[in-house]
Amino acid sequence: MDQFKNIFVEETQFWLNVSQYPNTTVKDIPFLARVLAERYGDVYQNTLEKMGDPRTSKWPLIESPIPTLLMVLTYLYVILWMGPRMMANRKPFKLKNILIVYNGAQVLMSLYMMYEHLASGWFWDYSFKCQPVDYTNNEKAIRMARLCYIYYLSKLTEFADTVFFVLRKKDSQVSFLHVYHHSLTPIETWFLVRFIAGGHGTFSNLINNFVHVILYFYYMVAAMGPQYHKYLWWKKHLTHIQLIQFVMVFIHSAQLLYTDCGYPQIMGTILLVHSTIFFALFSNFYYQAFIKPKKMETAKALKTE
């Protein structure tokens, strides 16, 4: 998988050469546009054909990233524009039974995927230090690749989280963190299935499944009604669990920077950046939701004394 590094080197050299064109004017734009179109058309085809996982290349939605990108754009259009306008003059939907069934189904799906991650490698066979992708048609290798595909599909189903928020007019829930997370993960998981269906990076999927079992169980109980909310005293600990998740992924991914087992090291860097961004976003959410209100209450109490 050193091809990832080779592409980066080639791209750097290409842009250095382009930057050295003398006396470039507006008239040269059509020519440069044609050069770029031809180049990146070739890069696109070569990347998919030479670097893609041949086992997954013909699976539905995986051959090209375009369907996934279109679904993400449609999701953004629905939740940010169409949905809010449709609900502007309507009362919020209740959706109690739908939410109970949906969140319960997500709990079961997350439990299934967590088990499959363990059974496909992480329980006995995989190394926690560095684990390459097995591109063979070995039974366990195919099982892990198939699981990566199921994981990708599960991220598409999670679009419903935001749709339900819009239909219930829970506008505060449709935050930058929420939208960023739900629009990015389908693209990331498509990349996972298309190029690296297995290996070191699937550890983050395993941890994410564990977190989602707890998260969707919380949502399911919350949807049952106010009489059950007394059992949800542990709400703020959900964010603690999510923060621990990103720390674990960061530490696990950092090992790729000094250990070479055949898994692309650039993916370790991407996972480090990814986990750092999400740690920062969730930390800010925790501060805004739990720490800041307490500080304001304390300040208010001191003023009244």
From TrEMBL:
<keyword id="KW-0443">Lipid metabolism</keyword>
<dbReference type="GO" id="GO:0030148">
    <property type="term" value="P:sphingolipid biosynthetic process"/>
</dbReference>
<keyword id="KW-0275">Fatty acid biosynthesis</keyword>
<dbReference type="GO" id="GO:0005789">
    <property type="term" value="C:endoplasmic reticulum membrane"/>
</dbReference>
<feature type="transmembrane region" description="Helical">
    <location>
        <begin position="264"/>
        <end position="287"/>
    </location>
</feature>
<dbReference type="GO" id="GO:0019367">
    <property type="term" value="P:fatty acid elongation, saturated fatty acid"/>
</dbReference>
<keyword id="KW-0472">Membrane</keyword>
<keyword id="KW-0812">Transmembrane</keyword>
<dbReference type="GO" id="GO:0034626">
    <property type="term" value="P:fatty acid elongation, polyunsaturated fatty acid"/>
</dbReference>
<keyword id="KW-1133">Transmembrane helix</keyword>
<keyword id="KW-0808">Transferase</keyword>
<comment type="similarity">
    <text>Belongs to the ELO family.</text>
</comment>
<protein>
    <recommendedName>
        <fullName>Elongation of very long chain fatty acids protein</fullName>
        <ecNumber>2.3.1.199</ecNumber>
    </recommendedName>
</protein>
<dbReference type="GO" id="GO:0009922">
    <property type="term" value="F:fatty acid elongase activity"/>
</dbReference>
<dbReference type="InterPro" id="IPR002076">
    <property type="entry name" value="ELO_fam"/>
</dbReference>
<keyword id="KW-0276">Fatty acid metabolism</keyword>
<dbReference type="InterPro" id="IPR030457">
    <property type="entry name" value="ELO_CS"/>
</dbReference>
<keyword id="KW-0444">Lipid biosynthesis</keyword>
<feature type="transmembrane region" description="Helical">
    <location>
        <begin position="64"/>
        <end position="83"/>
    </location>
</feature>
<dbReference type="GO" id="GO:0042761">
    <property type="term" value="P:very long-chain fatty acid biosynthetic process"/>
</dbReference>
<dbReference type="Pfam" id="PF01151">
    <property type="entry name" value="ELO"/>
</dbReference>
<feature type="transmembrane region" description="Helical">
    <location>
        <begin position="209"/>
        <end position="226"/>
    </location>
</feature>
<dbReference type="GO" id="GO:0034625">
    <property type="term" value="P:fatty acid elongation, monounsaturated fatty acid"/>
</dbReference>
